[in-house]
């Protein structure tokens, strides 16, 4: 993979962390943003057990993971913006025909 959109071309890491903090609170876990933010990028399969001890594929862990995903998509994603310079980079790659296989 040449480009990772989420967190690289789209400035989303803080939003992912904040959505986790919100879900944790809903489920009675007081886990601050500062503990969650450094773990963004690990994936739910590692983040959730590390912070709560829950399995992300079963029971409450699975429910929290699904709710967090829906919360992120509904409330956070629409407010996100490209990382500075991302559009220019992609346009240059297209102009240089380096993203030909990604065209629709």
Major β-sheet, in short?
none
Amino-to-carboxy terminus distance: 17 Å
Helical residue percent band? 40-55%
Strand content: under 5%
- The rough form would be described as elongated
Low-confidence stretches: none
Overview of the molecule:
With 104 residues, the chain is mainly α. The protein has one domain. Helix content is 53%, strand content 0%. The protein is built from five helices and no strands.
Keywords:
single chain; 104 residues; mainly alpha; 5 helices
SSE map:
Blueprint: H1 13-26, H2 33-36, H3 44-52, H4 59-76, H5 86-95
How do you describe this structure in short?
Helix content is 53%, strand content 0%.
